[in-house]
Amino acid sequence: MINVIVELSKYVILTLMIIYTFHCFYMVYKQDEEEKRELLRQQLMMIFFMDFTAFLVIFLKTGDFNIIIFYLEMMVFFAAIQILYRIFYKKASLLLLNNMCMLLSVGFIMLARLDLQAANKQLMIVTAGSAIALLVPVLIRKMKFLNSLTWLYAGIGVILLAAVFLLAQTSYGAKLSLMGIQPSEAIKITFVFFMAALLSRNVTFKKVVQATIVAGLHVGILVLSVDLGSAVIFFVTYLVMIYTATRKVSYLGIGVAGGSVAAVVAYQLFGHVRQRVTAWKDPMAVYENEGYQIVQSLFAIGTGGWFGMGLCQGSPEKIPVVKYDFIFSAICEELGVIFGICLILVCMSFFLMIVNISLQIKNPFYKLIALGLGTEYAFQVFLTIGGATKFIPLTGVTLPLVSYGGSSVMSTILMLAIIQGLYILREDEDMEIERHRQEAAQRVRERAEAQAKRREP
Q: How far apart are CA 60 and CA 310, in angstroms?
């Protein structure tokens, strides 16, 4: 009977995910606010039923009552965050909030299936991060001086990265964390604020050079620490923000050429880089060593097929560091490649929403912040999934909100809170423009009435 439930559950979960993904894109074209609210409520119900089905299956397969306790704690968290946002931020983007809850749900399901202790720790970090994040939108709204702290952002980033390079222990061939914290995750935010503050006013050649020097320091220290995934994310974000601020294709071309040369140099200098490229080119040839991770990842995805093996039916634990770098492979093995594609589409809709918010913001500082944070999110998703599927060499970064990792999930939640704050600012700008329009229309009417009275005999 349990096997029948497990078999049916994967189709239920897949169906809910497909409908949820369709709603993400369908709502973009809907103008009717009442219909949007109804679709948002339906999304919440889909998240609820997906979580209920998944955790029921995990409990039936493991018989561990702690799974039920974790599920209840998780649902309390989701209910609290949904209610609190509706109370304190009536102008917040509920679709952005729903997508965050959906991605967290997928991550919690897989972590609970792989390692319940890790899932509990992740839930604690997510809860703490969300509590802090609830303050961020109002701070973004009130702190008008953020664009004047340009060099403070740069100094914080360079000093923290230098501290990691000098003091951190090497783990998996790279220097990543200091006292259990990965500073590069938080510095993603300060780096975007630095670039936005520097380039939001009077973008001169001097400022482009300054931005390039500071970005080069960030990327260079990360390369020396062999944190190549973060280095690539910082570099791509720098290119996108420079091009957006200047609109000069020549800067983009020079940046791409310089990055290509730097990649070749890194390949020649670092054996760690050469190992990853070798594993990417032909993982079966080095299966016993460098290629073991990627081969196991590809086996997992291929074994799952379109519809997956079902929760607790596969062997994702055979993939090294599956909770961190290869959670997408575990998802595809047990929930199916179609589910994995839907997950990618949800991440894409996330990014498109952030870009849309950026395009609608009038203030250039906030516009660049939204675009920079969105670029970091999207490119990190690309690196993680691309590495797990052998589309690109492994870079050792996590899938935002889904993979296990305290620093990563905390920084992503804070990034999304900043985006929520910018979304609310955009709403305020629209209301202010509408108010000025109505006042101008009222003045025109008053002048017309005054002229009409003067013409009367």
A: 13
Selection from 421, 364, 414, 429 nearest residue 196 by Cα: 364
Rounded Cα distance, 211 and 214, in Å = 5
The DSSP string of 395-429 is -----TTTSS-HHHHHHHHHHHHHHHHHHHHHHHH
Phi, psi of 181 (to 5 degrees): -115, 140
Q: Which has the closest alpha carbon to 396: 257, 244, 232, 251?
A: 232
Residue type at 20 in one-letter notation: Y
The rounded distance, in Å, linking the Cα atoms of 411 and 419 is 12
CB 416 within 8 A of CB 133: yes
Cα–Cα distance measured from residue 311 to residue 113, given in angstroms and rounded to the nearest whole number: 8
Reading the block at residue 321, the tokens are 């560091």
Q: How far apart are CA 397 and CA 229, in angstroms?
A: 6
Q: What number of CA atoms fall less than 13 Å from residue 97's CA on the CB side? A: 25
Check: CB of residue 136 under 8 Å from CB of residue 418: yes
Contact 366, 123 (CB under 8 A): no
Instruction: Read off the pLDDT of residues 169-179 as tens digits, 9 standing for 90 and up.
Output: 666 556 666 66
The Cα 427–Cα 155 span in angstroms is: 32
pTM: 0.89
Buried b (16+ CB within 10 A) or exposed e, 351-371: bebbebbbeebeebbbbbbbb
Tell the residue number behind the tokens 């990853």, with chain if given: 276
For the chain, the C-alpha Rg in angstroms (whole number) is 24
Q: What does the pLDDT read at residue 447?
A: 67
CA angle 20, 22, 24 (to 5 degrees): 75
Cα separation of 395 and 412, whole Å? 18
In the chain, % helix, strand, coil (3-state, to 5) comes to 80, 0, 20
What is the distance between the alpha carbons of residues 35 and 71, in angstroms, rounded to a whole number? Answer: 30
Segment 335-363, tens digit of pLDDT = 999 999 999 999 999 899 898 888 888 88
